[in-house]
Amino acid sequence: MSETFALIKTEHGKRLQISGGLPAGFHGEQQGDTWICPLDEANAAALRRALPWTAPTTVGLRKSVGCGDRLGLATPGHILAVRESDMFPVFAQQSIREMVRAGRTPQNVMDDATWGVFEMDYQSGFGCDADHLKNTDVIDQCIAAGYIGFTLDPGEFVDNAAHIDTLAGLQAKFAALPWDDLAITPDDLRKRYLGGSFVGEITEEILLRAACKYSTAIAHVRHLSQRIESHLGGKAYDLEVSVDETDTPTSPAEHYFIASELKRLGVKFQGLAPRFIGSFEKGVDYIGDLDVFEEDFAAHARIARELGPYKLSIHSGSDKFSIYPIIYKHTGEYVHLKTAGTSWLEALRVIAMYDTALFREILDFAIERFPTDRASYHISADPAKISDDLMDVDLPNLFENLDARQVLHVTFGSVMTQFRDRLYATLEANDESYKAVLKTHFDKHIAPFQA
Ligand SMILES: [Zn+2]
């Protein structure tokens, strides 16, 4: 292949420049002996074929960091941080819920990662994560867009009420579980789990609660994983299972039950995301007692080692600086730190630095939207605590403030919809600054995970 590829900046934005002939699959405008090609879906797909390092690879059990990017502009900044570390990056990562809010598709997310990797000439490989997949339709969409990394979320099938049901209520629910899908009889399930284990004594009540709470969800994960297998069978792919959005923390006994059942049913997962004890609110540090967290986390890490090893995946993982050392101490290499919204906040920090008028409009709008947009999030921000007479130079300091961070975090869909063109224009004009603030921010996330 004699063609050469370069990313160039033009007055209309970034373009792919190809010299030495236009290979099959690309399209663009000829200028002399080069072609100037738009950064669109067809050219992204062609680039992934021409330069395989611009396509995602599997992550497997490598220590990894998920770098969600809601705008599709953050990958270059993420690369500046991860390339100095031994954490394997996952760039094309977004939940369907956030894609809908941002007006993006699985294909957009994949293509933006490709362009970011290409821009930085980052040839060391990256993973992808179609996050929080809940049904087979979105699995089909993501596979069509080239994803080979998936996080299955059976949260809608978790029976949270089983946490407090009476024993009689649990017995009735247990009898009515989808035993055919679970491919075991109630008696055999009892035999499998009742008694002593390394997570402690599993009593009838503990087993019934865990089974009633999670077995239907586990059957759903099996169903979803079979869909992936039917598309990708024989090829390598990454699979994570998340139960982090349940009403109550996942106890060690429940984690043990979930992981054992997934294994029994032949679900091959490399990562599991329990809901850990304490509060993992969006965009701010861990809220809770660190000693209590450590004792609980150590038990989860041991289960992941003994039943796998598989990686513990830390969802809402951004900005949890006080617990990173504890996490790394107990997981070692078997960890995936998943971040997403924090790169959106860093984008807004750049707006606050370079276009204070736009930032003030965004902040006012976010405060107005907050009561509505906070609905699907678990957060404690109070917008009344955000000062309304800040000088321009103080605006970036808002990013050290819990209330401002959360208000700006959860309103991102509304803000994107309202300010899309101006946001992109300001960030593209200041893309070197966005890279730099992301590097600083991600260095702080990655350093605690370095030996
Ligand atoms: Zn999650």
Radius of gyration: 23 Å
* CATH superfamily annotation of the largest domain: Aldolase class I
What sort of overall outline do the alpha carbons produce when their principal axes are compared?
globular
Spatial ordering of strands, largest sheet = 5-6-7-8-9-10-11-12
CATH topology of the largest domain: TIM Barrel
End-to-end separation: 41 Å
Reading off the top of the CATH hierarchy, the class of the largest domain is best stated as Alpha Beta
Largest sheet: 8 strands, parallel, barrel
- Average pLDDT, rounded to a whole number, is 96
In DSSP terms (H or I, runs of 4 or more residues), the helix count works out at 17
What structural class do helix, strand and pairing data support?
alpha/beta
Q: Kindly state the percentage of residues in helix.
A: 40-55%
Assess the beta-strand content as a share of residues.
Answer: 5-15%
How many β-strand stretches? 12
Small ligands present: zinc ion
CATH architecture of the largest domain: Alpha-Beta Barrel
Total individual domains: 3
The parts where pLDDT drops under 50 for at least 5 residues are none
